[in-house]
Specification:
The protein is α/β, with parallel strands linked by helices and about 350 residues long. The protein is built from 12 helices and 12 strands. The structure holds pyridoxal-5'-phosphate (PLP). Pyridoxal-5'-phosphate binds next to α3.
Length: about 350
């Protein structure tokens, strides 16, 4: 008798499993985790207290509509309530957007390399990924992305700043791109790292979405706000898209603790600004340190830097690990290093120097 196994959708064949950043070892010498673009700071003032209080009602389902949070977001970003939707991290919302727009036979365009979840969520939906290589400067090639649009295109991700390169697209080129994308193709501006942007020519997606019904902005509480472990992000989009997000949401996916922590975080704006400014200053220090050692690193507007190391990628990651910092290697391509606490950044700079001297 042949062993029968449950029939799975063929679309899942070849779907890569999401690889989380390697954790820092425990119990051994000091190791810092600079592999997941996390925030090194603890929750913002007042957030932990709210989260603990919220944990007192774990026996209850959370508010399905995230009403208190949406009211806070609507007020803060001056957007209608009906344009907002929350999800289990912005990756959860991104998956809902793909599910809402794209199935077998449809195409999803994104730059490559970019956020590694894009190919996964596209293929899980049964849609076809269309990867458009970054330019030689590691920036989105918006003209090539336009040229890749076909009748089958349903969704385009623009990751700004881009993970893992930290590079950005500017207002004029993004507007010109959006003006030429067909109105029935959804453009998702993934702004997971927007709070770290200091380049004044990088647009705020919320300004671009307002008079463009095919533009959706994705934001997260995981990075600048430091709530990665609570899994909460949100989208801002015009009504048909926002309504589709409510249909594709896992019921009660966003916990009460996450909703309360997000509200408290939004109310801790001064402390947020201080921390983000400190990380941005560290980013400048790291970039300067690397340049001083002779590295050519693309200017990053996010909380990480990208070193294009090609075949030396894994060797470099090994040198960093032995120095006490866990970085994120993409074999054959490069290494992404999160800006962490000062000591971690120092260890990374030392490792980078050691590696260069051994070259
Ligand atoms: C570009 C980008 N978008 C979205 C996310 C997802 O973040 P989260 O699901 O924690 O909101 C990440 C996380 O690394 C990211 O780099």
């Amino acid at each position: 008798m042949t062993e029968k196994t449950p029939k799975l959708r063929p679309a899942l064949e070849g779907v890569p499993t999401y690889k989380p950043g390697k954790p820092a070892a425990t119990g051994g010498p000091v190791a810092y985790k600079l592999s997941s673009n996390e925030n090194p700071y603890p929750p913002l003032p007042g957030v932990l207290e709210k989260a603990v209080e919220a944990a007192g009602s774990l026996n209850r389902y959370p508010d399905l509509a995230s009403a208190a949070l949406l009211a806070e977001l609507a007020d803060r970003f001056s957007v209608p309530l009906s344009h907002l939707a929350t999800g289990t991290g912005s990756v959860g919302v991104a998956q809902q957007l793909v599910q809402a727009t794209s199935g077998p036979g449809d195409e999803v365009i994104y730059a490559w390399r970019s956020f590694e979840a894009y190919p996964i969520i596209t293929q899980v939906s049964g849609a076809t990924p269309v990867q458009v290589p970054l330019t030689g400067d590691d920036v989105h090639d918006l003209e090539a992305m336009l040229a890749a649009i076909t009748e089958r295109t349903r969704l385009i991700f623009v990751c700004n700043p881009n993970n893992p390169t930290g590079t950005v697209v500017h207002r004029a080129e993004l507007e010109s791109f959006l003006d030429r994308v067909p109105a029935d193709v959804l453009v998702v501006l993934d702004e997971a790292y927007i709070e770290f942007v200091r380049d004044a020519d990088v647009p705020d997606g919320l300004d671009l979405y307002r008079d463009r019904p095919n533009v959706c902005v994705l934001r997260t509480f995981s990075k600048a706000y430091g709530l990665a472990g609570l899994r909460i992000g949100f989208a801002v989009a015009h009504e048909p898209v926002a309504a589709a997000l409510r249909k594709t949401a896992v019921p009660f996916g966003v916990s009460h603790i996450a909703q309360e922590a997000a509200v408290a975080s939004l109310r801790s704006e001064d402390a947020l600004r201080e921390r983000v400014d400190a990380l941005v200053a560290e980013r400048a220090r790291v970039a300067q340190g690397l340049a001083g050692q002779g590295w050519t690193v693309p200017g990053s507007q996010a909380n990480f830097v990208w070193l294009r190391l090609g075949e030396r990628t894994l060797d470099f990651a090994g040198v960093c690990e032995r120095a006490g910092v866990i970085v994120r290697p993409f074999p054959g391509e490069g290494v992404r290093v999160t800006i962490g606490e000062r000591e971690a950044n120092d260890l990374f700079l030392e490792a980078a120097e050691t590696f260069r001297k051994e070259l």
